[in-house]
Specification:
The chain is an alpha/beta fold. Among the domains are: 32 residues; 102 residues; 27 residues. Helix content is 61%, strand content 13%. The chain is built from 13 helices and 7 strands. The chain has a 7-stranded mixed barrel. β5 and β6 form a beta hairpin. α6 packs across α7, α8 crosses α9 and α10 packs across α11. The termini are far apart.
Length: 357
């Protein structure tokens, strides 16, 4: 049977182990929850707001996003000024006070749209820093719920887009539509595969220098011809720059340029004279009386042609009467025969016969 001394020593060791385990557990809880160090002295700051926006005691207080304390207490002030309806007591680190100017402002912030809220202090520009027990001016922010509500239309639109995308994917997976057929149709896949095979054959042929494109890419002779052609163009351009040839003189000769300007000026003057009605052409363009006379003359010519077509007058009969045409043809034929006989035997027609009575 163990002695009482050994039992006491065993109990002491168990007690020590229990104390160490509880201490380690408390340390782990402190590290995991981010609780304040109970042995560290805190400074107290105040801020007044219209609404607490569902903030809770123990919420984080940050300086430009860096944690410096906690919200210790939230209470209703009962003041008539609505901007001071709620007072929040903040417990912040003492070493953070020199970093907070007096004109700094505090407001609600959140890690994301659906994240937890905290109070964030935005540093001001004043040279004086806030003291322990001082009051921070609250920023006029919208309530977090209002921000969420303003984001609801965007979320609804995103949900609608996601539903449409889901329907589109289902449509494609069922093999409907062009894209669905492209994914599901084996025949279309085979055709595309055959087309790719043909493209590979063409590419191989071009790489081997076969065909027009292959010769264009790989034929050294064609390359040299192109180089010679480009060299000729280069020499031609150099000749133009030196003013050689008609085109070169046109580009470089100032006298030719002056002549072209003078010709252009004369043409401009001629057009102005025509527009003013000067000269025969100008009168033809601008003189109304001359225009009327030309119209009347054309009307007479048209009337004469109509009469000729109707067979009126000698010329009209000549153009439309076949009997007169045949008589003229016969007479012409007889005259031709007479002239032929006259040339063949002129004495026959020039003999003078004398008769005595």
């Amino acid at each position: 049977m163990p002695s009482s001394q050994k039992v006491a020593w065993s109990q002491l060791r168990v007690g020590i182990m229990a104390i160490v385990a509880l201490s380690l557990l408390a340390l782990l809880i402190f590290l995991m929850t981010g609780a304040d160090n109970p042995f560290e002295e805190k400074a107290t700051l105040y801020t007044y707001m219209m609404d607490s926006a569902a903030m809770t005691e123990g919420s984080a207080v940050r300086l430009n996003g860096i944690l410096i304390g906690k919200v210790r207490k939230i209470e209703i002030t009962g003041e008539k000024d609505n901007t001071r309806a709620v007072r929040m007591t903040l417990a912040v680190d003492l070493d953070a006070l020199p970093l907070i100017p007096e004109d700094s402002v505090i407001g609600f912030s959140a890690e994301n749209v659906l994240g937890s809220k905290f109070l964030n202090i935005r540093r001001g520009t004043s040279q004086k820093t806030i003291q322990n027990g001082g009051t921070l001016r609250a920023r006029d922010d919208k309530d977090f719920l209002e921000v969420v509500q303003s984001a609801m239309p965007l979320l609804d639109s995103m949900q609608s887009i996601l539903r449409r995308v889901d329907g589109l994917i289902e449509h494609i997976e069922s093999g409907r539509g062009n894209l669905g057929r492209l994914i599901k149709d084996e025949q279309l896949y085979a055709r595309i595969n055959n087309t790719l095979a043909d493209v590979q054959q063409i590419t191989a042929a071009v790489r081997e220098g076969r065909g027009t494109v292959g010769h264009l890419i790989y034929d050294e002779g064609l390359y040299q011809d192109l180089r010679r052609t480009l060299a000729r163009f280069d020499r031609l351009a150099e000749g133009l720059e030196r003013g050689e040839g008609t085109a070169g003189r046109l580009l470089k000769d100032p006298a030719l340029y002056d002549e072209l300007r003078a010709t252009s000026k004369e043409l401009h003057t001629l057009v102005e004279n025509l527009n003013k009605g000067e000269g025969t052409a100008g009168k033809l363009l601008r003189d109304e009386a001359l225009h009327q006379r030309l119209v009347a003359t054309l009307d007479k010519v048209n009337l004469t042609i109509d009469r000729l077509n109707a067979g009126q007058g000698t010329l009209g009969q000549l153009m439309t009467n076949p009997a007169l045409y045949e008589n003229l043809t016969a007479t012409s034929s007889q005259m031709t025969s007479l002239m032929r006989d006259f040339r063949a035997n002129p004495k026959k027609f020039l003999t003078i016969q004398l008769k005595l009575f």
